[in-house]
């Protein structure tokens, strides 16, 4: 049973990554009808939403695109920055979606930002406490590790509405600005949906692992009685 569980938590992220890469590769070959590249798309959407102070920069790497709320900068990977594809403009619009969330103080985004230091600390220390608790058969340490891990799991789960909302905003903005036509929405949604799968997979694996550890803790407590 454990090997089946292990296979599931390994295969789910792998499948999600493969889906993202295959979908992105396919639609990076499909040009957007407007002829705009990712950088132009990002700039147009930012300006339409009054975000003139947000910069658009090129960043190295593949699919390394992100929005940095500290620097107020949308960073696009080279292919998406210069590319004129449906995939490139979709990714660019998604990252701008986060900038719009930041401007509007979107509740889930603010909550996620507040959780970052707690989640980072929890991720770093949780497994130390969990391993020591399991090896030394100390339920209190195991429970402490689970609590810290739960903070990281909450971060993964709260990421889902943030990402889905950014994609929803991206679709609206792409059509509104005229980057894509209505008949291109289907292809654009496929790119954004595939990208969202990675976050869903990460959250699912995190929740499953937390449940497994909770079951181990309850079993240890029964053994103590």
Automatic annotation (TrEMBL):
GO BP annotations, alphabetical order: proteolysis
Pfam families given in the database record: Zn_peptidase_2 (PF04298)
Transmembrane segments: 114-134, 141-162, 191-215
Molecular-function GO terms, alphabetical: peptidase activity
Keyword Nucleotide-binding: no
Stored InterPro entries: Zn_peptidase_2
Keyword annotations: Hydrolase, Membrane, Protease, Transmembrane, Transmembrane helix
Record's protein name: Zn-dependent protease
Native source organism of the sequence: Peribacillus muralis
């Amino acid at each position: 049973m454990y090997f089946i569980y292990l296979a599931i938590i390994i295969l789910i992220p792998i499948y999600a990554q493969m889906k993202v890469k295959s979908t992105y590769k396919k639609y990076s070959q499909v040009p957007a009808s407007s002829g705009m590249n990712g950088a132009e798309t990002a700039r147009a959407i930012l300006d339409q939403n009054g975000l003139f102070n947000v910069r658009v920069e090129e960043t190295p790497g593949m699919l390394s695109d992100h929005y940095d709320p500290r620097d107020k900068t949308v960073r696009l990977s080279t292919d998406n920055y210069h590319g004129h594809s449906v995939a490139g403009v979709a990714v660019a619009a998604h990252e701008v979606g986060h900038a719009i969330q930041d401007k509007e103080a979107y509740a889930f985004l603010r909550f996620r930002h507040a959780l970052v230091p707690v989640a980072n600390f929890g991720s770093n220390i949780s497994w130390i406490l969990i391993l020591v608790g399991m090896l030394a058969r100390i339920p209190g340490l195991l429970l402490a590790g689970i609590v810290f891990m739960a903070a990281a799991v909450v971060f993964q789960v709260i990421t889902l509405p943030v990402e889905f909302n950014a994609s929803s905003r991206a679709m609206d903005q792409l059509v509104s600005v005229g980057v894509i036509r209505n008949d291109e929405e289907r292809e654009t949604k496929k790119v954004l949906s595939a990208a969202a799968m990675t976050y869903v997979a990460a959250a699912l694996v995190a929740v499953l692992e937390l449940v497994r550890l909770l079951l181990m803790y309850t079993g240890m407590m029964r053994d103590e009685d």
